[in-house]
Amino acid sequence: MEDPDPKTEELKMREAGHEHEESELAQASDTSAEADTHRRRADKAHYLREKLEQREESERRAARDDD
To answer: What secondary structure letter does DSSP report for 44?
Structure first.
């Protein structure tokens, strides 16, 4: 079985970092508007990470099917 695309794994890790960073910034925000902005960014990073996980699973299935 072939390993997932390294770019997918790298992007997934990057989005996980963004999600964590934006969540921390939301907690440390001085205003509710600023906190909302950081929460939306964290939500977007979470969404993108989930899509990358789906892509990774699809790549695994494709590799299995090729075997």
So the answer is: H
DSSP 29: -
Taking the CB of residue 52, how many other CB atoms lie within 10 A of it?
A: 22
pLDDT > 70 in the chain, percent: 93
pLDDT of residue 12: 93
Q: Average pLDDT in the 49-66 region? A: 91
- CA distances (Å), 35 to each of 17, 18, 27, 41, 48, in order? 18, 15, 7, 10, 20
Residue 49 and residue 5 in contact, taking contact as beta carbons nearer than 8 Å = no
Exposed (0-12), middle (13-18) or buried (19+): which is 6, by Cβ within 10 Å? exposed
